[in-house]
Amino acid sequence: MGGKARRRRLLTSPSRRRGWQRLARGMNDVVTRAPWSWPLLRAPMRLFFERAAATWDQRFASDPARMVPLAAALDLLPAAPARVLDVGTGTGAGAILAAERWPGAEVLGIDVSPRMIDAAASKDVPPGVRFAVADVARLDPGEGWDLVVMLNMPPFFAPVAAMVRGGGHVAHIASRGPVTPFYTSAEKLGQGYGRRGLETVAAGTAGPGTYYLARRP
Ligand SMILES: C[S@@+](CC[C@H](N)C(=O)[O-])C[C@H]1O[C@@H](n2cnc3c(N)ncnc32)[C@H](O)[C@@H]1O
């Protein structure tokens, strides 16, 4: 068996998957409770997703049901956002959904993994979508964003809240609900964003997953 095939088998074997779920849960907790430790976690996180990029779509993103909770959250927005940031875009699913829904919007998908970004950028994406390798913890908020999408992402409360401009929203999605490796309860999301000046708009379930929506007044 060649190196690539062996790595793919290891990433997809049930025991490996359980190991990854435990690791992701641990990382999610640490990022939530001790965000100062993120610089130590960045390299192992990036390494994991660099390895996962080649088979990401085949293993996860090809299931259309996983986008149902994000679509449900976007249905709740009062107006079309002009600027959308998809944090931890992976192979671009969240950014592409937003661009298809709002063809006039400027959409940026960022990820710490260059291979994920290469996979996203190689797709035939709608106009208005860009992808870039970037860490949200180091991103300049600039003029801010009307919508920040966090699709299956640990909550980087402080930097993400800083990206949301007045009247803007953040949508947190766990595609498979509480069994999603990067899952944070609506209660914890409400507390984390509440401390940073955002107010909870809605939280619920849709399809196989959960969504949480907050707004900066
Ligand atoms: C579980 S994947 C989700 C990918 C995509 N949103 C999806 O659901 O298909 C998490 C992604 O977030 C990226 N990521 C983790 N921390 C990040 C950070 N601080 N800034 C940007 N991307 C990050 C990882 O490299 C990985 O691609």
Structure, described:
This protein has 8 helices and 7 strands. With about 220 residues, it is α/β, with parallel strands linked by helices. Strands 3-2-1-4-5-7-6 form a 7-stranded mixed β-sheet, sandwiched between helices. Helix 1 crosses helix 3 and helix 3 packs parallel to helix 6. The relative contact order is 0.15. The model has no long low-confidence stretch (mean pLDDT about 90).
Helix content: 40-55%
Order of helices and strands: HHHHEHEHEEHEHEE
How many β-strands, per DSSP?
A: 7
Q: What Rg do the Cα atoms give? A: 16 Å
Distance between the termini: 56 Å
Q: Which small-molecule species are bound to the chains here?
A: S-adenosylmethionine
Low-confidence stretches: none
Total DSSP helices = 8
The side-by-side strand order for the widest beta sheet comes to 3-2-1-4-5-7-6
Strand content: 15-25%
Globally, the shape reads: globular
Overall structural class, as computed from helix and strand content, comes to alpha/beta
Largest sheet: 7 strands, mixed
Q: Quaternary arrangement of the chains shown?
A: single chain
Mean pLDDT: 92
